[in-house]
Amino acid sequence: MQIAVVGGGNCSPEVRAQARRLGRLLAEEGHVVLCGGLGGVMEAVCCGAKEAGGLTVGILPGEKEGANRYVGIAIATGMGHARNVIIVKSADAVIALPGEHGTLSEIALALKMGKPVISLGSWDIPGTIKAEMPDEALELLDLQVSQRRSWRDRKDNRS
Amino acid sequence: MQIAVVGGGNCSPEVRAQARRLGRLLAEEGHVVLCGGLGGVMEAVCCGAKEAGGLTVGILPGEKEGANRYVGIAIATGMGHARNVIIVKSADAVIALPGEHGTLSEIALALKMGKPVISLGSWDIPGTIKAEMPDEALELLDLQVSQRRSWRDRKDNRS
Amino acid sequence: MQIAVVGGGNCSPEVRAQARRLGRLLAEEGHVVLCGGLGGVMEAVCCGAKEAGGLTVGILPGEKEGANRYVGIAIATGMGHARNVIIVKSADAVIALPGEHGTLSEIALALKMGKPVISLGSWDIPGTIKAEMPDEALELLDLQVSQRRSWRDRKDNRS
Amino acid sequence: MQIAVVGGGNCSPEVRAQARRLGRLLAEEGHVVLCGGLGGVMEAVCCGAKEAGGLTVGILPGEKEGANRYVGIAIATGMGHARNVIIVKSADAVIALPGEHGTLSEIALALKMGKPVISLGSWDIPGTIKAEMPDEALELLDLQVSQRRSWRDRKDNRS
To answer: Any chain C CB within 8 A of the CB of D9?
Structure first.
């Protein structure tokens, strides 16, 4: 799956460690990591994913040259904050780490689009699913996706 | 000034009445009303502004034909939720009425861009300024804008 | 109607005079002028429209502050070249003056969307309608729009 | 490098064969293939690249579900034609095959952004470089990129 990881462009060492661990776990499960391609949480999650041999996609507000060094595929939108919409829309699910209003906009857009949003210490908005640790975030992610699939399958069988 | 009014595409009669009153007040002060161009709060605020002889701009997610009948200038973006970014970015200030996650995304984007956001019964996000009634929202709007101007002037004088 | 006028950000005095005359004519017929909001052809057409008391909308690649002084409503997209799509998509018809590759992209997008495109000394792309002078461009515009309307009416009557 | 291949959503068997061969060649040289993710030329180039074990990115106008089956990474923009800007902006160079006005818009945008554009039987716009066959397109691509690099290096050394 394509999993978006969103969070601050600046972050504490603790959040950075969590993002990196999350990147590793996602890559080990074979997921593609989508993010905004810049620093902080975005860089850490790409770093972790790359260490585990995973594929990372940075969807940038500006030019390709702005991508952090762990971005594998750089999508240069030149569209500023509107790239937040693309990150979320391209994702099967979103994991949000601590961040400011940009992160909040991504959580809001994901909920608007009906995507599962796991909040790993991020904004507490109704509709998000809370996780304490990266490993728990991944378990919740798998659970969410399988639940939505089985719900969809049941709906398909009925019709 | 160009003032964005954001809020739900569906709304209660009370919110509709507030949005319409707000539209009137904005138009009477000579402001251009920007909004998403669809129904609910967007339609009511355009209706009020038009009744007062004001200019209304609908920045639409899809085609021009989707605009409510009180939209004067229809900007057809064809960009879905990314049009939220344009509404907010084109505004000198944002007034938010009750709405769901789309409205939340606009509040978040406006705060991210450093624009004044007045919450008239909308999401309670740190950084927004609360108003109870349309008239109060307008007073707060004028206050905000004049404060930011005088702050900017002082800064310019110092440098 | 909302008529987009596209063309170079830099232009010769002759083209500038044509754009200004075109703006006047459009405003006198009651059309809203849409453009990219910057200099050259965009500034001249806004200038002409404003002189005739018309309404001008600048759909900008960046910030509102980048608008030329004849722009009435400034739409700040922050989306760079992607704003070309919005200019064209918001227009009932497009009039193209001389310009470079940005202008060509707008002509191509307009033709892709099935909009009438009148080329007033601009790129010679199959599907555009050639005009020699601003007055002729306006006549062709009226003709195009009325033809398309009657074609649509006939189609509606048949179905 | 990230190479965008653009062309019609419908195409002749000959063009399809060329696009597929081009995809293979690009993948064999280790390039990532960017495209619009839909049918015709876009599907054929992805097919060829995938057959050669390459990585393909589809930058879609709508939802992820619209991607052809050879797309590896699906970027869902929901932005319609504005996604053309992202395809081109994310590319180090563009190879254009036959297509209609959408393809023309991508060529124009690429030239506007100063990217090398190789026209493999596509629109004949000043500034594009003509190729007759996929193998020639790839040679021209390598030549263009190395020339631009050495030009940039010389400029850097001078300054």
So the answer is: no
